[in-house]
Every structure is written in structure tokens, then in C-alpha cells.
Amino acid sequence: MLRKDTSKQISGFDQYYYDNVIPQDHLLRRIDETIDFSFIREMLADRYAKDRGRPAEEPEFMFKICLLEYLYNLSDVQVIEHIRLNIAYRWFLGLNLDDGLPDDSTISYFRVNRVGLEKFEEIFHRLVDLCVEAGLIESQPKRAIADATHIIADVAIPTWLTLVRQAFEKVMLELKEVDLPKAKDFQQRYEKLWEELKGKKRDEKLPFVLELAIELLEVAQPLLPKDEDPYSATAMLQKVISDRNDTAKDRMISVVDPEARTGHKSDMRTIQGYKDHIMIDEKSEIITAVKVTPANAEDGDQLIDLMVQFQEHHGVFPTEVAADKGYWFGKNLRYLHENNIIGHISWMKTKQHVSGLLSPEDFQFDPEKMEVTCPNGVTTDKYRDRTKDRKGHEFRFTKLQCQGCPLRTQCTNSKTVRNVFISEYYFDLKRGREHYHTNEYREAGKKRWLIERKHADKVRNHGLRRSRYRGLERTGIHSLLSSMASNIKRMSKLIYEKRQRDQSALLQTT
């Protein structure tokens, strides 16, 4: 239940002490002077009972504690200890020197149960609205920049063998509750098997453990209650088993955080966890959209979601967007073109570009006649539709058509035919390549480093790199709090500087 009377004053003595001890240019003073957080109480009022229960801590007060955690990279336990000792923190929270503090578990309950991902998203976008109202972001934003960085999952990544064993043991715990004799039988067999496998290498042990795990799954599934949860014990064991197939994709990497995945930072470097996708306003460097995905998600698949997220909450699209080659997707280029947004997206070269061979854009495609003409003037209308991995049409030039062609060595290494894949986004990609060579693209590309600086700020100063929580939803909360801390720090600086300029201009006028 929320208190009806929210007014709380710092005593005269404590206020005098705060005024004389806390520097006037302290970050928390600047935030307090420039940003009004009173909207949080109204936004979260529906999460509290109206007429029952003990009076809860004020939502604005609790949000400010969460903010302090991410502003200064502290844990729930650490932030309470720091508030006890740091008078600037106490002043920022509106506390007297002798006021008591909530337990650290209250912070966790507030973050997950009182607020949750959806409400944190609302708070994030309300803060972006404040930036628009203050003139930091133009009502019609000019250029946005999109990019992603990784978040390491808060788990120890096990080997394949250990992962199977952990999933096996989770099913065993549940089986004991419904059929103890069967559970004991499997436990004895498991212990005996493990004893027999002593001295063998992990890869040699894995098939035997998998065999027993498959048998356990067959026995346990009919006995355990049917659950639609994709991360129930039996569902996880089933996935862990199927993931051991060499062709499996989207492999689970932990039963502790089953939504975390393995992604690739480069050809040599992998990451285990999640990705933080953001979009910033180039002029103000304020983060305007945030999305968290498992680490194996493609960066380019998130661009439209980021654009739509901003448009739904703020009513407009940026007029331009810049991004690296990870966003070079035909669907992105088409979406931007259809919504009159200029896309400054780096051109991702194909293997043919790298090898120097003629690529599909060197061929002329006629969609009305459904035929392709090669640079030597030869035309073919023989094609087959492709719908699985890439949507489009695969045209084929026969050996007879290519025989004696002076461009053959530049076209293909094949001794028989040349296949030319024409994407369903052929003309969107063509338009994007043409724009890639313009001065407008080059000018926009010079500013892309700004988003790298924003990622660095979140990672180094606001605890982004390793998730404090487990699961996609809670990692989303982690990312939003890190983004809000970075934004609030930036907002307070820009608003303060704007006020200083306005005061200076007023003095010169008078």
C-alpha cells in the first residue's frame, strides 16, 4: 500500500550539513536539479494495493536506489552499505542522517515484482520524452545510430558432458517427488556408470551418459506433470540431448540460465550470454531504444524493432539511420525506403566481391520478363525459386551459353554452369549499394563512433558487460537500468549546460 502523504522534509540541521559538505557540482546535485522523477509514483501506483498491507517504500525513492546502483556500479548489498556512509547518496534520496534504510532484499522485490520489464520500459521512454520536452532531442529527430554489444551471462559455462549431467540431475529431483523407487533405480545406475567411466576422456564418457539420459527422459515424461514451460526439467533435458547433434542450432549452454546462448564476436571469438541492441540520437547521444536478445541473434534482425519501438513511443521516425554492415539486410533497406528513412548502412561484401568474381549486381535483372542478362549480353530465363534460407530466384546459365565467353574467368570457377542468385530484395540492395558510394553516406559514417562510445560508457561505468541477473527478461531489466543511468547522466549534463547558456543569453540581453 502506498502512503497517502508523500511529503518528507530533511531537518534544518541536516540540510545545513548537506549544503556545506556536498559539492555544488556533484553529479547527484546536477541530476536532482535537472530531472523530475515524480512521474514514477503515478506510473507504478497500479502495482500497489490501495487499501491493504503495510505502507510500502515510495516508488520514486526505490527507483533512485536502483539508479544509484547503476550510476556507481554497485550491487543491492553494496548500495545499502554505501547509503549508510555516503551523505551525497542520503541527500539524493531525501533521507536525514539518522533515517533507517530498507533491506537489500526489498530492492530485488521492487525491481522484479513491483516494476518488472514492462514498467522499466515505460520509465525509460518517459525519460526520453523528457529529453524531447527539454529540446535535447528534436521533435523530428534527424539521424539515429544503431549497434549492439554483448552481455556475459551470470553463469559458469559447463562442458557438454557437465551440461547433460546437470539436466539429468534436475529431472532426477522431480522424479523423486512422484516415483521414488524409479528415481533410486536411476540414481544407482547413474552412480555405477560414472564409476565404470573413470579414466576415460570426456568425449568417451558422453555417449554413455546420453544413453542413460534418453532412457530417463522416456520414463520421466509420462510420470511428471505436463508443463508447457519450455524450460521445465524434462524440456531442458530433451533439448540438451538434441543439441548434441552436430547439425543442431540454437544450443542451450546452461540449465541455470537456459535462455542464454553462444554468439560470435568474430571468427575466432565467441560470447556466451546475450546482446544489448541500442539506438541513439546522434545529436544528443541519448539512447532512444533498447532491445536484449540471446547472443546468437543477428544484429540486423533487430533494426526494424528498434525503429518501431521509438516510433510507437514517440510518434515519429528519425529521418536517417546509420549502422554497420551487420545491418546490411534487404528487409532493412526496404523498410527504411518504404518509410522515407535514409539508411546509411555499410555494404556487406559477398565472397564473390572478395574473390574478384562477378557478383549478382553485375547482372541485369528484368522482373517483368523474369530473365537475367550477364555482362557479356547473354540472357537466361531458366530459374528456380528459393524460399528456405534466402528468398529469391536462382537463375542458371548453361555450359553452352558460357562457352567461349571472354569474361568467363572473371565470372566463375565452375567448369559447367554459372548460377546467379537474385534476391527478392535485389532492387533494395542495389539502391543501398549506390547510396554507399555517396558523400552523404561517408559523412554519416564519420559519426558512427558515437555509439561505440555509448557502449563503452555503459560497459565501463554502468555495469553492462556482465548480467547481474539470469534469464532474458531480467537481463532486459539489467540493460534498461544501465541505459537509464547513462541517459540520466547525459541528460543532466545537457540540461544544465542549456540552462547556463540561456541564463548567459538573458544577461547579455538585459
Structural account:
Helix 5 (76-85) packs across helix 6 (87-93) and helix 8 packs antiparallel against helix 11. This protein is of the alpha+beta class and 510 residues long. The chain is flat, with a radius of gyration of 29 Å. The strands form three sheets. Strands 1, 2, 3, 4, 5 and 6 form a six-stranded mixed beta sheet that branches. Strands 7-8-9 form a three-stranded antiparallel beta sheet, with no helix packed on it. The longest helix is centred in the last third of the chain and has 38 residues, at 472-509. The mean pLDDT is 91. A hairpin with a 5-residue loop joins strand 10 (383-386) and strand 11. It has 20 helices and twelve strands.
